[in-house]
Structure formats: C-alpha cells, structure tokens
Amino acid sequence: MVNAYLKRKIVNGIMITLSVISSIIGIGFLFWILGVLLYNGLSYVSWELFTVDGAPPGVTPSGLHHAIIGHLMLTVAATVIGVPMGLLAGTYLNEYGQNSFFANLIRDLSDIMMSAPSIVIGVFIYGMLVMPVGHFSGWAGSAALAVIMIPVIVRTTDDMLKLVPTELREAAFALGAPKWKVVLQVVYKGAIAGLTTGVLLGVARVAGETAPLLFTAFNNNFYSTDMSNSIGSLTVTMFNYSMSPFEDWQAIGWASAVLLAFAILSVNILGRVIIKKK
C-alpha cells in the first residue's frame, strides 16, 4: 500500500513538473513574439498610421487607413453572415436535432471544417464566387471568412446550450410556453455569456486570416469601400509591405503586425473575461 501510494506521488509530481515547464515554455514563446513585435513596430505606430492612406515607397506620409477600413468592412460583413448561421445551426443541433444521425453528422462536419486549412477555403470560394464573375471582390473575401467563422460558432453554441439545465426548459414548457419562446427567452438568456464568447472567438479567428483573402478580396493599395471589387485588408497589406525591399514599407508592415496582434489578443481576452465573470 505504501509503495503504491509513493508511486502515485512520484508520478503526480513528475506530471505536474512537466505541465509547469510546458506552460512556462508556451508563455515564454508568446511573450517573445509580442516583445519582438513591440520592439520592431511600436515606434512606427502613430496617428498618421490610422488617418493616411498608403503611399508609394519613399513618399511620406504613408499609413494604413485604406487597409484598416477595408479590413473592418470585410470582418463586419463576415460577422453579419456567419454569426446568425452559426447560432441557428448550433441551436438546431442542441434543441432540435440533439442526438439524431443528421445532427451528429453536422457536428462531425463542423469539427472537420474547424481544422480545415484556411487556404483551402479560400480556393473553394475563389472557384465559387471569383471565377464566375471574373474578378476579385470584398464580398467573396467576407464569404470566405464567414465559412471559417461558422464552424467555431456552431460548436461553441452547441456546447454552451448543453450547459443550460434541462429543468429550466421543463419549467417553461409547464407554463405553456412554445418551443421557440423557450429557446429565445430561457435557453439563450441562460447561455448568453458563452454565446457571446463564441462569437468573439469566431471573430478573432478570422480577423487575422491572410490566405483566403489572397484568393478572394485580393488587395487594394488605395482607399476603397466598394465591396464588389478588390478591397484593402490589413493582413494582406502587412504581408505585402513586410516582403517588400523598401525600408519604409517594412516599417509600416511591422506597425500593422502590432495593431493586428494586439487587436486579436484583446478580443480573445475580452471573451475570456466575459465567460469568467459569468
């Protein structure tokens, strides 16, 4: 008995030590990446970066106004498309489909889509929405981002609704409430923090995507709000500027990396804070 207890203590200590070391290494890499971004890009973050459009190499002032506006438009359009579809699909899985064959099939497909490379989705949307019309567009880019976002929201919604006690539903049914009203006024209210977190995580998931936009929205180095044609995006602009041989463009590329990284980090932290407070 003593030997078995001692063996469990030793194994437990080893596993805790390995877990702590792994956590320290992971956090260390995170702070290393953030530190490199701040060191190389923070000094180039200025007010002009937000208010001035991009300029040719060597021309000042030059900024990211066109890319920031375009990226916000792409992300907002993708959110408008993806969030309702994800919430409704997740609601069906938990409230209506439950453990049926079709519902389980949708869950499996959703899990597969969550792990699918984003560039594959970009190529798919390119074949569906870009090739038929013969040119890139912001709508195609938003559609690609929405396809990436939907599985995240579907899975999160399904999981969060499962946490709502069945007794709440039964009490509402006992009072004569119809199914749709139970879902809207009881189930959704009970899972609002988790649903909000799922939406925020879905937005954060697509806000940093570059590959699908290369095949759909492409990019635009000039200010444009026309979603029916190529439109600028922060991620593709960062990629182009960082790969250029011009030092001023490289500096703006570092600054855009700082903006994007900390914006996505802030959204993720906000989601965690919301679910923790709940």
Q: Which segments are poorly predicted (pLDDT under 50) over 5 or more consecutive residues?
A: none
Gyration radius, rounded: 23 Å
Overall form: globular
Question: Biggest sheet: strands, sense, closure?
Answer: none
Count of DSSP-assigned helices: 12
Quickly name the level 1 CATH class of the largest domain: Mainly Alpha
CATH homologous superfamily heading of the largest domain: MetI-like
CATH topology of the largest domain: MetI-like fold
CATH architecture of the largest domain: Orthogonal Bundle
Distance between the first and last residues' Cα: 43 Å
Give the total of domains: 2
| Percent of residues in β-strands | under 5%
Number of E-type strands? 0
Helix-strand category: mainly alpha
SSE string, helix = H, strand = E? HHHHHHHHHHHH
Average pLDDT rating: 88
Helix content: over 70%
How do the helices and strands line up, and which of them pair or pack?
Layout: H1 2-41, H2 47-51, H3 65-97, H4 101-114, H5 118-130, H6 138-162, H7 166-174, H8 179-190, H9 192-207, H10 211-215, H11 234-243, H12 247-277
Helix pairs in contact: 1-12, 3-4, 3-6, 3-9, 4-6, 5-6, 6-9, 7-8, 9-12, 11-12
